[in-house]
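Figure 2 data, in text form.
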Amino acid sequence: MKKKLSSFSSLSSGLQVVIYGQFFINLGYFSLFPFISLYLLELNTSPATIGMILAARSGSNIVGMLLGGAYADRYGSKRIMNLGLLISSMGYLSLIWAFSPMSFVISFIIIGLFSGFAYPAESKIIIDNTDPENRADAYGLIRTVMNLAAAIAPLIGVTIFLKWPIVSYIAIAIIQIFYVIAVFFMITEKTKEGASFPTNTIKAFTEYGLVFKDSKFMYILLALTLSSVAYYIMETTLPMFLHQRVTDAEHLYTLLLMINTYMVIFLQVFVTKWGKRFTHRKAAAIGQYIYFAALIIMSFSMNAWSLIFSVVLFTLGEMLIASPAFVLLTEVKHESAVGKYQAIARLRLAVAQPISSLVGGFVLQIGGSMAMALSYAFFALLGAVMLTRQKKRSTSEKSFESVL
């Protein structure tokens, strides 16, 4: 593996497969799930029932990640990833026959459980096909294609899914099956597989004790979870904030999301390279301080232009945090438990999102929009201070100037 990613062709074939796979997987995901609520409403499904259906997917996804992390360490990344993708593709196909709330719940549980099951193994493959010197670059590329897919997908959702949902279900299943085939033939397992498969679920879960005892990893995870709480203002409570500040909140929110998405598409790779002049921890901390500044500005913003500026600044912080955060969470104490580490690392988002929604909504109701923005700023500041004050350095956390 080359230590500097000068072009896409310099990537290993395994990493190229993952990048292409992430683009098409996210193209399918973002063309379906943002619109599934509208489709269910057309089937006369109540809002409460729709919430239950979506929660079934989210809850099963968490369980799947925990199981997938343990099994990937024991049974190998390729097998677990392909098993998860293959069964989740069957879940998408089962939606063809889903017309009642219970049938949607069952299909979404299958999709959530086995897509989550595949995730830690896919993260292991990314780690296996990169080294500490180019891992941030690789993740920057992955974020770019994910956001590119997210930008294109809504058009597909409006023009295809809402009109011919069965076509979408079949297309997503086919995408995942082709991804399985590509992984099977083009990715070589690089980590040594365990000698035995867990004999029961309890044993698979108890092995997570290795992760929770790694105090350095858990400290960094907590610091990054705090910044994730701040980040989720973009996806959770920002529309309510805008509703109290401007007259045309819906259109402004759409514009702000577009700015955020396209900034990541066009600038993520460059920001990642610029951030390499710092250690990973320092780059992530700077990004969190930028979050803090952006949210302070947002708290005082009363017009569209100042709100746009705050989101531009916020997105710069997001891009600076993303790749270093991924790399920091791959620096593990127990190499035999990489899958478990990645499962726990991913779960920080599952924890941060509901906290962001609950805290933001509560503070908005009690203290108003300024207090809400300031509460998010506090989370960002606390995370930044934690990373700044963490003095214990790993040998892989040196400056990358020597390889630029």
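Caption note: Residues 9 and 16 are 8 Å apart (CA to CA).
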